[in-house]
Amino acid sequence: MSTSKLTLSDPDSGRSVDLPVVRGTLGDPALDVAKINRDLGYFTFDPGFVSTCSTRSAITYIDGDKGVLLYRGYPIEQLAEQSNFLEIAYLLINGELPNPTQYHDFTEQVTHHTMIHESLKTFMNGFHYNAHPMAMMCGMVGSLAAFYHDSLDPDNPHHRMVTAIRLIAKMPTIAAACYKHMVGQPAVYPKNSLGYCSRFLDMMFSVPAEDYEVDPVAAKALDLLFILHADHEQNASTSTVRLVGSSGANPIACIAAGVAALWGPAHGGANEAVLEMLTEIGTKDQVGKAVARAKDKNDNFRLMGFGHRVYKNFDPRAKIISKMTHEVLNKLGIHDPLLEVAMALEEVALKDDYFVERKLYPNVDFYSGIIYKALNIPVEMFTVMFALGRTAGWIAHWLEQNAEGNVKIGRPRQIYTGSAHRDYVAMESR
Ligand code: SDX
User: Fold this and answer.
1) Which of 5, 91, 288, 349 sits at 20 to 30 Å (Cα–Cα) from 413?
2) Across the chain, which distance is largest between two alpha carbons, in Å?
3) Residue 71 CA to its chain's centroid (Å)
4) What's the pLDDT at 193?
5) Catalytic residues
């Protein structure tokens, strides 16, 4: 019989509180501390939410010690091998794998929502040519929230689903338009005759002056990367989407907030930072210096693409991407010296006590940039790629939170460290 509660007592006040144990299907149990302030007069304190569960969710499960990642119970290794991104998006959103009719209908719906309102070009043209694509994505997705007034009610199931479809369909169109703005080429309209990833690559790399044929190897590689980036439980950007959504905000604005949170180098921005780091290291013989810098507490240099809040073992996604990197570069006939630098860095770090003691392993961002580079995607666009895959997860979590109804607004407390009460001092007396 497992424990149903733990009792916490305060010897100073003599008060105690029973903390109910909350259990899920898998993973460690949690203590429900909702009443701890009312009954014991304490808050809990957990900066960065290292040991704090913010919600219940049935979408994704991670076992950080074992390096396990399940989307709706299915192991990421099986999904990477046998599924595709749109099927994964359906699975994350609906909780079950689609049957052939459901898959066809979902794909058709996404395909027929890929265009964006022509007015959005006005926003795009306002950006300077050297605007970072993630800044453009924040602005463009935020601007998308100004459309579709007829279907943005979070309490309306039909509105929720059509918004989900619109976002999954339109994010690639917006992302490709950001790239085209960056390189000074005209935006390319989506071709509904193409598959999801082929359509995106066509919008990225085709030009009006000549025909363009999408390389199926590139499309397949991108589809797999989108699968691997689709969801990851309560990471910073997904938690942001949930927190913004908890106020009842415009659902598209919630996704724009997720884009902003993903941009940071500690999160999705790491894939861009990894390529910059590998380029700065330059050659294998400089790897030792980089590892030494990463260990030096007086140097704020970190091995980007290494370490993870949850994984204290190999990130299963990194294992898949590492293997895929070799396959894709071989198929495309590309030799990238940065791959050798990355492999040398991984080999040295994984043998070093500093990394072993702290259980720092390569994460999803360590190798992904080498594949994006092989697909001719510029480094500034790497985090945009991450956002395209993660849109499925952001939407799934927003839907899950709103489907529950009676959403409680997220409002953490704090430990106040400022001045105690003091009276205003007139200017002449200061
Ligand atoms: C993603 O949450 C998710 O699921 C995220 C993600 C997703 O799919 O959504 O998986 C995607 O964001 C992956 C992570 C990408 N970020 C990076 O690769 C940036 C480099 N990594 C780190 O900054 C760091 O590892 C984090 C941010 C990922 C995790 O940081 P934590 O959990 O807050 O750990 P920490 O900073 O407290 O580090 C613990 C120790 C510290 O040393 P000590 O103080 O114990 O001596 O490990 C050290 C850190 O200095 N450390 C590193 C390191 N990462 C941690 N030292 C050198 N290089 C690193 N990369």
Assistant:
1) 5
2) 80
3) 14
4) 97
5) 308, 365
Beta strands in 47-132 (DSSP E): 60-63, 68-71, 74-75
Closest Cα partner for 305 from 394, 369, 259? 369
Mean pLDDT of the 256-279 span: 96
Helices (H) and strands (E) in the chain, counts: 18, 6
| CA of 265 relative to ligand 1 center, distance in Å | 10
Residue 149's pLDDT band (boundaries 50, 70, 90)?
A: confident
Collapsed DSSP state (helix, strand, coil) of residue 186? coil
Q: Which of 46, 45, 34, 40 is nearest to 9 (CA)?
A: 40
Q: How far is the CA of 368 from the centre of ligand 1 (A)?
A: 17
Q: From atom 13 of ligand 1, which residue's Cα is the shortest distance away?
A: 267
CA 306 to ligand 1: nearest atom: 60
* CA 270 to ligand 1 center in whole angstroms: 10
Strands 5-9, 16-22: pairing is antiparallel
- Name all residues whose Cβ lies below 6 A of ligand 1: 48, 232, 235, 266-268, 270, 294, 302-310, 358, 360, 363-365
Atom of ligand 1 nearest to the CA of 274: 18
Give the C-alpha separation, 252 to 255, whole Å. 5
Kindly state the tokens that stand for 336. Answer: 């990238």
Q: What is the pTM of this model?
A: 0.96
Query: Cα(352)–Cα(347) distance, rounded to whole angstroms?
Result: 9
Closest residue CA from atom 2 of ligand 1: 235
With pLDDT > 70 as the criterion, what percentage of the chain qualifies?
100
Q: Closest ligand 1 atom, CA of 267?
A: 12
Q: How confident is the model at residue 404 (pLDDT cuts 50, 70, 90)?
A: confident
Nearest to 168 by CA among 191, 197, 146: 197
Contacts of 209 (CB under 8 A, 6+ apart): none
* Tokens found for residue 175: 């992302």
In angstroms, what is the span from residue 303 Cα to ligand 1's centroid?
Answer: 9
Please report which confidence band the pLDDT of residue 204 belongs to, taking 50, 70 and 90 as the band edges: very high
Closest-CA residue, ligand 1 atom 31, reads 309
402 pLDDT tier (thresholds 50, 70, 90): very high
Q: What is the SS3 assignment for 68? A: strand
Choice from 227, 267, 368 to test ligand 1 binding pocket (greatest atom count within 8 A of CB): 267
Instruction: Report residue 104 as tokens.
Output: 């066809």
Using the mean position of ligand 1's atoms as its centre, give its distance from the Cα of residue 267 in Å.
Answer: 9
Query: β-strand 60-63 against 68-71: which pairing, if any?
Result: antiparallel
